[in-house]
């Protein structure tokens, strides 16, 4: 049986870095494999030194659908009294850190090991350590997986007995703004179907495959190592069924 796990990654700010150069911390425009593995590791309570357990998570196949493109932003961090490399004094260091604002992603993980995905789904709802999206201060804006309550915000559907590609193509759109829904439905009525950008892990020999150096090998302190994996970029049609699958919840007006 092919089992997939669908997660919603929504936050005011997210950061998914592949490389950092001196005082510059970059971010990609969608979640990285290393970042999602770290997220699952935190939920399951796996130590960064537990190589065997992290390797199991790293073996999961991952696909991402960009349900709302984020805005690339930059902030500055200033650290004072940083020792110089010569050790003869102190200095002030200014670093530039990039992040995505207002992005929403559907992340789907697939594996034949149903027990592993089941444990991961349960842990996501009751995490051992707090969950964050790239930095400790970047917290989720809504649950990653639905609790099944009828009044719940639309979010990740959780465990699905479907292949990864099918979930990406059929999962409800995670955008919660009613105006965005109305705009896209009106565009479809005029014959203009929108698309959602996707990135799916694939075999290196797949035509059009691109390397992405975010496959984690070790998270141990002082021994963080990564290798490359192959991903295939594509697009998912934003159909009426994706848009209208469950109405977005409209916040109640405060009563005075």
Q: In words, what does this structure look like?
A:
The protein is an alpha+beta fold and 256 residues long. It is 22% helix and 36% strand. The chain has a single domain (3-70, 102-244), classed as Alpha-Beta Plaits, CATH 3.30.70. A hairpin with a 2-residue loop joins β3 (20-21) and β4 (24-25). α1 crosses α2 (51-58). The chain is globular and about 70 Å long. The relative contact order is 0.21. Residues 248-256 have low confidence and may be disordered.
Structure characteristics:
12 strands, Alpha-Beta Plaits, 5-stranded mixed β-sheet, 256 residues, globular, single chain, alpha+beta
- In CATH, the architecture is 2-Layer Sandwich
What structural class should be given to the helix and strand makeup?
Answer: alpha+beta
Q: Count the DSSP helices.
A: 6
CATH topology description: Alpha-Beta Plaits
Helix content: 10-25%
Q: What is the terminal-to-terminal distance?
A: 53 Å
Question: Overall mean pLDDT score?
Answer: 88
Instruction: State Rg.
Output: 20 Å
List unreliable stretches of 5+ residues: 248-256
Oligomeric state of shown chains:
single chain
Strand order of the largest sheet: 9-1-8-5-10-12-11
State the domain count: 1
CATH C-level label: Alpha Beta
Question: How is this fold's topology laid out?
Answer:
Layout: E1 3-10, E2 13-14, E3 20-21, E4 24-25, H1 33-44, H2 51-58, E5 61-68, E6 71-83, E7 90-101, E8 104-111, H3 114-125, E9 158-160, H4 164-170, H5 178-189, E10 195-202, E11 210-220, E12 223-237, H6 240-244
Parallel strand pairs: 4-7
Antiparallel strand pairs: 1-8, 1-9, 2-7, 3-4, 5-8, 5-10, 6-7, 10-12, 11-12
Helix pairs in contact: 1-2
